[in-house]
Automatic annotation (TrEMBL):
Molecular function terms from GO: hydroxypyruvate isomerase activity
InterPro entries listed in its UniProt record: Sugar_Epim/Isomerase, Xyl_isomerase-like_sf, Xyl_isomerase-like_TIM-brl
Domain of life: Eukaryota
Residue ranges of every copy of the Xylose isomerase-like TIM barrel domain listed in the record: 27-106
Top-level taxonomy: Eukaryota, Metazoa, Ecdysozoa, Arthropoda, Hexapoda
Pfam families in the cross-refs: AP_endonuc_2
Keywords assigned by UniProt, alphabetized: Isomerase
GO-annotated biological processes: glyoxylate metabolic process
Name of protein: Xylose isomerase-like TIM barrel domain-containing protein
């Protein structure tokens, strides 16, 4: 087999946390030479317009976007399968899809 060029994207759920905010993590990924990023779910402190501007500023491709996990510090790790959380899940899903579409993310 001949050499295969591998391409990696930065998972901002785990990488560049020391940079602080999501905006700064995007910038750190760009500075480190990444061309694409994955995760995290759309933050409540970054508007859709700011998110689109951030992608344009950095030139990073949003390869994958996660959905909100809920109250992780409180022990919640997702809400899709929790009885009584259907509305929260649908709200999270709609917001995630809106952000993903705005930056051309298909996964």
């Amino acid at each position: 087999m001949t050499g295969v060029a591998l391409r990696f994207c930065a998972n901002l759920n785990f990488m560049f946390l020391e940079a602080g905010s999501l905006v700064d993590r995007y910038r750190a990924a760009k500075s480190a030479g990444f061309e694409g990023v994955e995760g995290p779910f759309p933050p409540t402190d970054v508007s859709l317009e700011q998110f689109v501007a951030l992608q344009k500023e950095t030139g990073l491709k949003q390869i994958l976007m996660n959905i909100s996990l809920g109250d992780v510090p409180g022990g919640q790790f997702g809400c899709a399968a929790l009885p009584g959380w259907e509305t929260e899940f649908l709200v999270n899903l709609e917001r995630t899809v809106e952000y993903a579409k705005a930056v051309g993310c298909r996964k």
